[in-house]
Amino acid sequence: MTEKNGKEILLAESEQNFKALFEIIESIPPRKRSMTIETEERDKNFRDVLMHLYEWHAMLERWYREGMDGDTPFMPAPGYMWRTIKPLNMQIRENYQDVTMNQAIKKLKLSHHRVMKLIQSHTNEEIMTKKYYKWTKTSNLYGYFAANTFKHYIWAISKCEAIAKSIKEGENSLNKRRIIR
Fold this sequence. Notes:
It comes from Oceanobacillus oncorhynchi. This is DinB superfamily protein. The chain is mainly α. The chain has one domain (44-180): Four Helix Bundle (Hemerythrin (Met), subunit A) (Up-down Bundle). The chain has helices at 6-26, 46-68, 85-95, 101-120, 124-128, 141-148, 150-180. Helix 1 (6-26) packs parallel to helix 7 (150-180) and helix 2 packs parallel to helix 4 (101-120). It starts with 5 loop residues before the first helix and ends with a helix.
């Protein structure tokens, strides 16, 4: 048996965590998946989390496209620096408040598929070699892809677990109130 290379691990971890994320969401009845929870956290429902991931996929795709065209992509986004990531993430949340849960699911599934195709289009050497592409500076493609796929999905899983738990607890307390009456 051969050991998996970085590209294979990246693809496998991304698919596994993406699937796990949707298993959490699908554990909630469809009519309750749009519920907003009371929290101090930025993301208050599944849609907020999914659109956050979607927007970061879109930024990655822009960085990639601009970088591969020979330009130096502005990262993370025009008007923002890495040290101002919190306001950027708040702006992302605000930008998608009119998106429905079904739209969010479709958008994220499509962007995930596009990013997986980008990864698949490269050799392991192209993905794992630092400075292989000028636009990645001292890093490699793996760092960019991992941060915006499986590592980000791990973050999203924890957020969605908390949202699902809150929805279920709210449902349980409502059921208890019905029994008491």
